[in-house]
Amino acid sequence: MNSLTRKIGIGLMGWADLLIRMNISYDWDEAINLADRIGAILQDKADRYSSHLGKINGNFPALKKRKKKPLMLYCLLSF
User: Fold this and answer.
1) Which string of DSSP letters, residue by residue, matches 5-66?
2) Cβ atoms of residues 36 and 44 within 8 Å
3) What is the pTM of this model?
4) Following CA atoms 25, 29, 33, 35 in sequence, which dihedral angle do they give, to the nearest 10 degrees?
5) 37-62 pLDDT, tens digit each
6) Can you give the C-alpha Rg of the chain in angstroms?
7) What is the rounded CA–CA span in Å between residue 10 and residue 22?
């Protein structure tokens, strides 16, 4: 574990199956919009859980260096 940050392993399984069931192609705007919506939910849950762990275990040093910039989705998720 990196001693400056708290890693929370999350991901999305079944993306292709979801798109097939919804009859959406990978390269359609609908797929991108759906990925954005799901990613926002996952990011919110990850942020909330990290905050919860911070209350229990204390904050990690990197939190002090972060200047309220939004986390990039690709840092939390990999498809």
Assistant:
1) S---------HHHHHHHTT--TTSHHHHHHHHHHHHHHHHHHHHHHHHHHHHH---THHHH-
2) no
3) 0.63
4) 40
5) 998 998 898 888 888 888 887 777 66
6) 15
7) 23
- By the 10 Å C-beta count (0-12 exposed, 13-18 middle, 19+ buried), 79 is classed as exposed
41 and 48 in contact (C-beta within 8 Å)? no
| Cα distance between residue 31 and residue 20, in whole Å | 11
Say how many CA atoms lie within 13 Å of 18 toward its Cβ. 11
| pLDDT tens-digit readout, 2-18 | 666 767 677 778 999 99
> What's the one-letter identity of residue 16?
A
Residue 68 has pLDDT above 70, yes or no: no
For position 77, what pLDDT does the model report?
44
